[in-house]
Design goal:
alpha/beta, 5-stranded parallel sheet
């Protein structure tokens, strides 16, 4: 597949409810960067039983390219700015040739499942390990290390506690200068938002920058405890490698 070598590609591989939209909005403030909101989402939904319970799945598939190879071709092609930031979900990669990953820097974004799972359950109830990305992240890290590809792991809590410090580290690893503009953005939706924004982006739309971290104090839902136990070993493996 033809690759445009004049562009620096940043592939964000998040899980749901991991402040990935906040990070996308942050990079969208850079004058040298164009951002793309979950270009693989439609392809993930197409022909997959998950479409039965994802809000507005039909509308999402109608709104975007749903062919993995075509989308990968777009990501590897030309872009209107020298840096292209692709916000993706790790679990959206299903039976995909991952050789395209050789052409960019990879950002793994994780979050404590004690906080993430109850938030996700409010939109998609009774999720499974395949819905939330922790196992997919571990598999992805193994692929990146096996192929000696550049990556960084970011933990959502550590990012919120000290966003400028973590972003400066990330930019240095990527090979771009830190831009102070990444710390704030206009209130409201972003023009790059996917059509699913109304279901997931309420908090970031009400923000104008990185909000201070506030630990969740509500009781953890009992029905999610088995999934929490499944996710925690994967999360802690990721956390041990995260930028601090």
């Amino acid at each position: 597949m033809k690759v445009n070598r004049d562009c620096k590609r940043l592939f964000l591989w998040s899980g749901p409810r991991n402040i990935s939209t906040t990070l996308m909005y942050s990079f969208a403030q850079r004058t040298d960067t164009v951002v793309y909101d979950e270009p693989l989402y439609g392809a993930y939904l197409k022909g997959n039983s998950v479409a039965d319970y994802h809000p507005d799945a039909g509308l999402i598939m109608e709104s975007m390219d749903c062919d993995y190879q075509s989308i990968i071709g777009m990501m590897l092609g030309s872009h209107k700015k020298p840096v292209a930031f692709f916000k993706n979900m790790a679990h959206h990669l299903i039976d995909v040739d991952r050789s395209f990953m050789d052409c960019g820097f990879h950002i793994i974004l994780t979050r404590n499942p004690k906080e993430m799972l109850p938030s996700f359950d409010k939109v998609i109830s009774n999720p499974t390990i395949k819905d939330v990305g922790y196992k997919a992240h571990i598999d992805l890290v193994a692929h990146l290390e096996r192929n000696e590809l550049a990556y960084a792991i970011i933990d959502a809590t550590l990012l919120l506690k000290n966003p400028e410090h973590v972003l400066k580290q990330l930019c240095e690893l990527i090979g771009i200068s830190f831009d102070q503009g990444m710390m704030s953005w206009p209130i409201g939706p972003c023009s790059q938002d996917g059509v699913w924004a109304k279901h997931w982006y309420k908090n970031v739309h009400a923000s104008t920058g990185y909000r201070p971290y506030n630990e969740k104090v509500i009781a953890f839902p009992k029905h999610l405890l088995p999934l929490l136990q499944e996710c925690e070993p994967y999360y802690h493996e990721l956390l041990n490698k995260a930028l601090v």
